[in-house]
Amino acid sequence: MAWFLHRFLLSLVLLWVVTTLVFLSIHMVPGDPVELLLSQDGGTPDRATVEMIRKDLGLDRPVYVQYADKIAGIARFDLGRSIVDDSSIAQGIGRRLPRTLELIAAAAVLSLLIGIPAGIYAALHPGGLFDRAGSYASGFAQGVPVFVVGTLMILIFSQLLGWMPAGGYVAFERDPAAHLRFLLMPASAIAIGLSAVVFRITRASMKDVLPLDFVRTARAKGLPEWHVVRRHVLRNALMPVITIFALQLGGLLGGTVLVEYVFNWPGLSGMLVGAVNARDYPMVTGVILVVSALFILLNLIVDILYGIVDPRVRK
């Protein structure tokens, strides 16, 4: 229990460090955000208007006061308000974040269902046709950019075959079948590259564990092959798979921009791009902090999984 508590407290400290760095980085950007916002139409903003808006937003106060307010707001889950339309940042993120998480979760499930069984089979039959074909295919899948995969999928399955919609979004509660149809192609576009990573790591890790002494001992006892693979080989081979997979998922939290853009999926990445284009610094800060918090949470979950899979880690 002490080990889990230590990891949790360390995650909180890391979140505070990230929050501080993001806050300082935003304030080090040259230019006044209010002036940039008001001058987007090409005109010169009135100085009195700029000062009034700066006062309303609290930007006229010292930096350390703004920092203290930011930390206090985050502690009560208040990320502030947008300087563009005065909307709640937390509510905006709350609407879009589940869509991005759903997209990533669907891609993760697909990649695990494909990558782990394929990696196990390839490791158990080294040098075979499936092993060689899987290695070539996974290398190719990792090298093709996700926006190219998405564009090709739209061309083939939407334009030529007419099986799937080219893009868009329908709420699940409104039409579950249509929601899943809109979700399938963007999730598959992400899962292709992710499953290639899972396949290669699973295959390599399995091949490292198979020749070890305890595996030979288990086989010498006459245990069934699948029992040896499932109870002895796979459990010890999962550690690097969990590590790499978690890192890949963490990257997807901020890396779904192109997929959401290609398939017109209204997720968090599109919100971040819109906030950057509009010079909405509070919104940018809020999105970055949420993504960072999710990444830290994901690493905490991985640490806990380490402790469950291999109790030696807790010592």
UniProtKB/TrEMBL annotation:
TM regions (residue ranges): 103-124, 136-158, 178-199, 237-263, 283-309
Keywords: Cell membrane, Membrane, Transmembrane, Transmembrane helix, Transport
InterPro entries: BPD_transp_1_N (IPR045621), MetI-like (IPR000515), MetI-like_sf (IPR035906)
Membrane topology: Multi-pass membrane protein
Entry's localization field: Cell membrane
Segments forming domain ABC transmembrane type-1: 97-306
Top-level taxon: Bacteria
Keyword Oxidoreductase applies: no
Pfam families: BPD_transp_1, BPD_transp_1_N
CDD domains reported in the protein's UniProt record: TM_PBP2 (cd06261)
Family: Belongs to the binding-protein-dependent transport system permease family.
Designated name of the protein: Peptide/nickel transport system permease protein
Species of the source: Pseudochelatococcus lubricantis
